[in-house]
């Protein structure tokens, strides 16, 4: 189960890493931050409905669940995407993405201060190494406009994304079907962007075909597969551990930028990649650390969703930290 969590979270990070590069291409074709945020959530709704129909999952939720889903969608998922997309315009894709990756620190702090979760020596060391690797991706001399605003938005997007990861791990949302969670949070983002557009009138509804194509790729990669893989990964790992493995994203972003935007993959970025991969390897080899939720609750949730029972050797109690 731990190996599944590592694989799911790593794949999610690689897919998320494609989003900044594809977003930059849509901006070149007439899109903007509000338009991209609106369409990347709208375009996944039919896919999610099809999956839920095939899985015979009811769309019915309680009033409490709906309120939580809307709040997470608007103030965590939607706010993260919108702020990061705006930051790209001020300080560039590379710098904004790097500053966004303060979120593992925020995840660790929230879990420690709010839930009393111990960080542990292995996770603390891996987190410090990973953050040091991210710093090596930081680029200077980028972007025009208000650099300070871009920096603030990038860091704030990391905070709201950390809240999203913690919500997926520490609340009752982890017990819902992941496709159902993404469907409602994506719908909340779409409605929120339309509400913002009423006074601003910024959404560009008539984009060129290539812009729609890149936007669709962003939607499928980051708002469908990546989010679902991340939620699955958090279920097998704690939020803090999953956050560290998510730091593979700047590596993916740098490689995609070099391949599609002609950006240089410098020796500094290579060193940062090595440090991040080393941190991920250290965490993967460390003593298993699970979320404080009971193993019985996790197995019950998996059984309700049709997952096969884990082998007998995986049912043994995981040693506590």
Describe this structure in words.
The protein has 321 residues and is mainly alpha-helical. It is 73% helix and 0% strand. The chain contains 14 helices and no strands. Helix 1 (2-16) runs antiparallel to helix 10 (209-236), helix 2 packs across helix 5 and helix 7 (121-135) runs antiparallel to helix 13 (267-285). The longest helix has 38 residues, at 63-100. The two termini are 17 Å apart.
Summarize the structure in short.
The protein is an all-alpha fold. The chain has 14 helices and no strands. It has helices at residues 2-16, 19-28, 33-42, 45-54, 63-100, 103-115, 121-135, 147-170, 178-200, 209-236, 239-245, 249-260, 267-285, 295-304.
Q: How much strand content do the residues show?
A: under 5%
Q: Structural class, judged by helices and strands? A: mainly alpha
Helix content: over 70%
Let me know the number of strands. 0
Q: Write the element-wise H/E pattern from the N-terminal end onward.
A: HHHHHHHHHHHHHH
* Low-pLDDT residue spans: 141-145, 290-321
For the termini, the CA-CA separation is: 17 Å
Question: How big is the Rg?
Answer: 19 Å
What form results from the Cα inertia axes? globular
What do the pLDDT scores average to?
Answer: 77
- Assembly type: single chain
Q: How would you characterize the largest beta sheet?
A: none
């Amino acid at each position: 189960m731990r190996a599944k969590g590592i694989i799911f979270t790593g794949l999610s990070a690689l897919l998320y890493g494609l989003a900044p590069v594809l977003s930059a291409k849509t901006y070149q074709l007439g899109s903007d931050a509000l338009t991209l945020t609106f369409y990347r959530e709208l375009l996944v709704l039919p896919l999610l409905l099809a999956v839920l129909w095939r899985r015979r999952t009811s769309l019915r939720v309680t009033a409490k669940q709906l309120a939580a889903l809307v709040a997470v969608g608007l103030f965590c998922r939607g706010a993260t995407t919108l702020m990061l997309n705006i930051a790209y315009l001020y300080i560039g894709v590379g710098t904004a993405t790097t500053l966004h990756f303060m979120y593992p620190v925020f995840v660790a702090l929230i879990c420690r201060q709010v839930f009393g979760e111990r960080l542990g020596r292995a996770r603390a060391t891996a987190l410090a190494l990973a953050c040091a690797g991210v710093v090596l991706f930081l680029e200077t001399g980028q972007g025009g406009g208000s650099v300070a605003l871009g920096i603030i938005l990038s860091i704030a997007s990391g905070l709201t994304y950390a809240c999203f990861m913690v919500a997926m791990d520490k609340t009752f949302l982890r017990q819902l079907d992941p496709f159902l969670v993404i469907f409602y949070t994506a719908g909340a983002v779409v409605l929120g962007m339309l509400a913002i557009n009423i006074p601003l009138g910024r959404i560009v509804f008539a984009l060129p075909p290539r812009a729609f194509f890149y936007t669709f790729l962003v939607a499928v990669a980051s708002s469908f597969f990546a989010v679902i893989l991340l939620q699955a990964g958090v279920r097998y790992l704690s939020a803090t551990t999953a956050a560290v493995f998510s730091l593979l994203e700047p590596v993916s972003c740098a490689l995609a930028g070099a391949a599609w935007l002609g950006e240089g993959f410098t020796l500094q970025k290579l060193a940062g990649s090595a440090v991040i991969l080393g941190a991920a390897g250290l965490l993967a080899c460390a003593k298993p650390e699970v979320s404080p939720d009971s193993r019985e609750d996790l197995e019950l949730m998996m059984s309700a969703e049709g997952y096969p029972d884990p082998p007998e050797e995986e049912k043994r109690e995981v040693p506590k930290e």
